[in-house]
Structures are given as C-alpha cells and as structure tokens.
Amino acid sequence: MTIIEELIRTMKSTFRRRDIVVEDIRMGVFYTAVKLCTGDAGVAFTPRDLADTVCCPRSAAKMPASGRLKGKKALELINLAESDNSLQRSIGIAVVNALSAALIKEQGIRGARVKKGADALDVVEIEDRDRLVMIGAFVPFIKKLKGRTNALCIIDKHPQALKEDERHFWRSPASMKGVVRKADVVIITGSSMVEGGLDEILAACTIAREIILAGPTASMWPDPFFKRGVTVMAGISINDADKLLQVVSEGGSGYFFTGFARKIAVVRDKRSDV
C-alpha cells in the first residue's frame, strides 16, 4: 500500500458517516487550496511544469468538472490524490490536508512532539560530518545550510533554481537513489506528494538518521509517514481559511502565508512505535 492509499483509507474510515463537503476551492499559480464546510483548510503544490503548456493545454482539459467542484463531498474529491493527472492530484492532496487538519483537531497526534512556529532545521541536529541530501531546492534551507556543511547534495529538475555559488551542490534526479542511500539527513519537498515518487525516495533512505518532509504540502496526518521512516513533518497550521484561499487565488506562494498560517513541526518520538 502506498502512502496516498493509506491516507485515503484512513480518511474514509474516519469520516465515513459524515457529509463533509468542499465549500470552496482555488487553484493558484503556486498552490491549490480547499476549504471544507467544517472550516478546515488544506493546501497543495500546484504543478507548473506541464509538457503541453500552451493556451488551453490538454492537461488542463482533464480537470474534472471545472466550475462545479464546490459542494462536492470531500471523500469523493480525495480520490483525485491517486489520479494520473498532476493537476487533479493537487486537488486531492489539498483535500487530504484539509481532512488531516480536522482529524488532528479531533484526535491530536500520538507518538510525536508538536513544535508550533518551528521549521525542520529548528528541531533536528545536524552534525559536521553528516551527509545531507535535499530533494527539491528549499531556498530558506539552502541559506541556512550552505555555510555549515559542504557535504550537501541538492536534487532538483531545474539546476537554474540554484544561485551561481550553489551550483556545485546540484545533482541530477537520475542520481537520486545512489545519493540518498548514502545520506545521514534527507530533506524532501512536500510537493513530491503531487509530483510523485515519494514512496520510492523513502525506500532508498536506508541509513538516514533524519528524514524530513517539508513545505505547506507536508501538512498531513503523520502516521503513514512515520511508519516509513520519516522523522519530521514540517508543514503549516492554517488559522484563517478564507484569507488563505484569497492569497492562493491571487498568486501568492508560501512566503505570503504569514499571519493566517504558521509553521508547525511534528517530530516523531523515536522511542514510540507508531
């Protein structure tokens, strides 16, 4: 069972008797956001690297019932998280995050410590000899790490995402398995949930002491991730769903989430079995 399959099963078994509908949905340039009738909200990375990006691309034409998504049941739209189309997956993952927020509010998080206002690098210890791998170019993390270690590899489809003095860190996605197998600390973008490949990445983390999933998309019910070795889920907690939707629909990125969403790091208790 994949992580997505387990998340969908968890949400359907938890909310099976409730008629939770999607009250609003926005697909922005950088993020897709949904708001449930419960008031809970979730976001997910919006894929922009589309092979047929022209006016009215074929991939966009595959969007299900555009203009008629509001009012659909959350447990119907959650199935899109398994779609072959990345735009549809973005909607499904955003719904997963919104339902995860509702589940965490009801049940809390077991086997973990919750650090509000913290990001991943605030809650993990990185030693001088550690080999670090970053999958996805996290600009704030690169700024913090590049002066602390030279044993850093950044795997990203776009080397131009790195500054001139950072290019020596870049590695091709084709090298992912070999590089990750040797890493002590692995930082993975939450957008991998939308773009695909997270299960494969985690399976390659054979010796890593810390495995971090980071970014607004990584705001999910943590148990399936902890079972597969993830030690930190560094996402966000949303306190103003309407403002979030407005900013997303106006082209805002994670840099604009301050004030109505805050960073939250869920750190697995390594002494507990999840």
Output the keywords.
single chain; 274 residues; alpha/beta; Enolase-like, domain 1; Rossmann fold; 2 domains; three-stranded antiparallel beta sheet; 11 helices; globular
From the N-terminal CA to the C-terminal CA, the straight-line distance is: 17 Å
Please list the strands of the largest sheet in the order they lie side by side: 4-11-10-9-8-5-6-7
Helical content class:
25-40%
Per CATH, the class of the largest domain reads Alpha Beta
Overall, the morphology is globular
Uncertain residue ranges = none
Helix count, DSSP H or I runs of 4 or more residues:
11
Order of helices and strands: HEEEHHHEHEHEEHEHHEHEHE
Beta-strand proportion: 15-25%
User: Based on helices, strands and strand pairing, what is the structural class?
Assistant: alpha/beta
How many domains would you count in the coordinates?
A: 2
In total, the number of strands is 11
> What is the gyration radius calculated from CA atoms?
18 Å
Mean pLDDT: 90
The major pleated sheet works out as:
8 strands, mixed
CATH fold category name of the largest domain: Rossmann fold
Reported CATH architecture of the largest domain = 3-Layer(aba) Sandwich
Give a verbal description of the structure.
There is one protein chain. The protein has 274 residues and is an alpha/beta fold. The protein folds into 2 domains: 3-107, Enolase-like, domain 1 (2-Layer Sandwich); 112-239 and 256-268, Rossmann fold, CATH 3.40.50.11590. It has 11 helices and 11 strands. The strands form 2 sheets. Strands 4-11-10-9-8-5-6-7 form an 8-stranded mixed sheet. The protein has a 3-stranded antiparallel sheet with strand order 1-2-3. A hairpin with a 4-residue loop joins strand 2 and strand 3. Helix 1 (3-14) crosses helix 4. The chain is globular, with a radius of gyration of 18 Å. The mean pLDDT is 90.
